Write the structure tokens for this entry.
Amino acid sequence: MSERKMKRVEDSLTEQSHLLMPKCLNAAGYLFGGQLLAWIDETAGIVAKRHAEMNVVTVAVDNMYFKAGAKVNDTIVLIGRLTHVGRSSMEVRIDTYCEALDGTRTMINRAYFTMVGTDEQQHPVEVPGLIIEGVTQQIENEAAQKRAKLWKVRRHEGF
């Protein structure tokens, strides 16, 4: 049996930026939640794919919390990072910001996605483990483990 490969959170950290265009707005003139969900899913997929070094699929959206809106011509910045890795699953946290012209960022959304590494037949396969460094990553990892336990209970209950 070979030793499991291990990777750091920073190895897969991903930042994406988008200029908010009129086609991405809802009827009220703010960023359409479905568009943001697509951007977040894409970012989570890139984070997980970089970590796993294989194709991944989205299994669950655990939390999608909208804190504020964004308007046309705003710069939207998404930052994705791993918080927890199981055998084949990975939890990815994506923080979304609205960036002002002077570079200051205001958080508008936080989401947690569960991604799974897959083989060519879309079967789950083991992914590299996660090296936790520092207090902040430890706290986030412990919270992710609690979310994973709750997710398993809900899945068992048919939720």
